[in-house]
Amino acid sequence: MNNYNIALISGDGIGPELTEATIKVLKAIQSKFEVGLNIIEVDAGDRCLENRGVALPKTSIETIKSSHACLKGPVGETAADVIVKLRLMFDLYANFRPIKAYPSVPCMWPDIDFVIVRENTEGLYKGLEFTLNDTAICLRVITRKGCERIAKQAFELARRRNMKQRVTAVHKANVMKVTCGLFAEVCREVSQLYPDIDFDEQYVDATAMRLIKEPQKFDVIVTTNMFGDILSDEAAQLIGGLGMAPAANVGENFAIFEPVHGSAPDLVGKQTANPCSMILASKMMFDWLGERYGDSVCSTAAVAIEDAVVETLCKGITIPDFGGTAKTLEMGEAIANEIFGK
Ligand code: GGG
Hints:
The protein is α/β, with parallel strands linked by helices. It has 11 helices and 12 strands. Glycylglycylglycine binds near residues 79, 125 and 233. Glycylglycylglycine (GGG) binds near residues 79, 125, 229 and 262.
């Protein structure tokens, strides 16, 4: 039996409701499979800032550091001080955002299945902003090393997926000739190392259009930090909205898993938020633990979570947005019951 310390940030807004539902699923996995989870609650986000004067206390960072992985709910206005900071602190340079149509979910097309691989530590989200008199400046930092490692992650993923075997590099090198120019050039170089994978390039504005027009054609999209953040919100809308969109922030030695979305303050307390985003993020966590620790039980647990989500959706146990009557927690319980039933 393998035991893992999991740092858990329940987050703000709908975060605690999603977390409660996700914990049902984690408990089902613990009971059903030979995997021990020591879940350690970690304080971070808007509420933490209000209560303790800091959005990401040192004690929270220490707990996260000593864990095997971190599962995080959405945080609100303090996203830059929590998740963006954690990505930089742990060098979690790859943000994997799968966009997959699940059955019984209102989707634009049923065969959408691609992944946005977003560079997670550079670009406009590096936080290098300042003012000079009446001028506000944000520095866009793109390095060869940053481009190389994210491009390699994208090509490796296309190989592992073994689906359409295509990587699309998304940039705007016709306008941002230096920063996007370097990103495009390095993606082209890396593509030479993967002759078995097709490679193409698109300008980000064209991708924004093609995501609506022909999203089934994408396999793996690799792009810079802010483009990836924006395109993944757009893409989530193709598959039932942000409630179906999980993400993994991955570095060489650590990873943080989270829903793509924010804290949705308008939905708080209603139990109408879709918990699939965080439950599927926990699925990605088990996938990663399985690979990192060579633990096939975790890999099996990941498959069980996704299967249970599918079964639950197919039974029509969904939140009102998808035509069902289930509450957030009820969906979590239904998914957990499917796991027990296997
Ligand atoms: N619209 C999605 C959202 O609010 N996501 C939270 C957020 O802003 N995260 C920052 C990031 O992913 O870089």
